[in-house]
Design goal:
Order of helices and strands: HHHEHEHEEHEEEHEE
Largest sheet: 7 strands, mixed
Helix content: 25-40%
Number of domains: 1
Strand order of the largest sheet: 3-2-1-4-5-9-8
CATH architecture: 3-Layer(aba) Sandwich
CATH topology: Rossmann fold
CATH superfamily: Vaccinia Virus protein VP39
Strand content: 25-35%
Mean pLDDT: 96
Amino acid sequence: MDEKTLQFYRSNAQSYADWAKAPSTRLRSFLALLPPGGAILELGCGAGNHSAVMLEAGFAVRATDGSPEMAEIASRRLGHPVEAMRFDELDSQRAYDGVWASACLLHVPRDELAGVLGRIHRALKPSGVFFGSYKMGESDGRDSLGRYYNYASPEWLEATYASAGPWTMLSSETSVIQSFDETPANMLNLVVRKAVA
């Protein structure tokens, strides 16, 4: 993982949590793909806005964030445990009906993403569903705040996902968001299903 990026979120946890936007409009359609009351792992939960919707809808949620400071803020807001866990520490197997990773895996160094995606693949139950969103681009770099991004192209992501395990693509959509550093970003939003080998 990129330590400079992690330290940014550790040092700016409260201001980032206060800035956090409303839950993604894509969350409801993701939840509709899961069994009622199913088990969801959220990676990079930030202030907990998405986990709040999942919990309210009756799902069993394991909320995690790489920043212990952010995890503590989210846990207080949710009244629900939030674990401090880095992506490369995920070691569950066939445990989750869904994995939600909104605008967080975009910080994983390019040469490490396939390994993290492989961990997510193993953590999902057969036919489990995985949402991930990424800032689009052609090569990695840092933003004005020093945060690392893998700036992925659709072709590069497709190849990286394929190297991590068999998936079935459910949807691939683009959107534009306003980043924490107040610049617009083109996002690629992917929903895939773990293919049963």
